[in-house]
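Data availability (excerpt). All sequences and predicted token strings are deposited with the supplementary files. A representative entry, Large ribosomal subunit protein uL10, is shown inline so that the format can be inspected without opening the archive.
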Amino acid sequence: MSKFVKEMIISEIESQIGEVRDFVVVDSAKLDAITDNGFRIKLQEKGITALTVKNSLARRAFANAGIEGLEDVLKGPSTLVWGGEDIVELSKEMTRWAKDIEELDIKGGLTEGTSLSSDDVTKLSKSPGRLELIADIVGRILGPGAQLAGAIKGPGGTLAGQIKSKSEGEEA
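Structure token line:
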């Protein structure tokens, strides 16, 4: 492959990854064409991109983009996977696919500049996702207000009745 062609491929990899900094790397080389095609189509439907790369060119593209931490993972057949809501959703999706397709192996990943092993990606997939964490935070914030509203509007308006009788008692 000529230097010009290599530079074009590196440039294309850089443009495809853009500002993305969370990746999972899988080995999909053992998949047959039909399974691989179905796998990629299902990922695309969820907003996840899979790109099979030549490791040396991917390393150079990542170096040009200022991304470090995937050097140890990019050995042997590699497919870069990125996208989805966040890295937790991505790791959940890839872990599910690795269970469904025996030939698909998770090699590792990268999040916020931290390199992840295959086990780390599996552990991350068991964490709550972004939306689950937001729902938990909102629930915790609204909890005290809901309790107060329940006490005010509760049976017989006990809290409101007590406040009213207390204020009438002070006026008399």
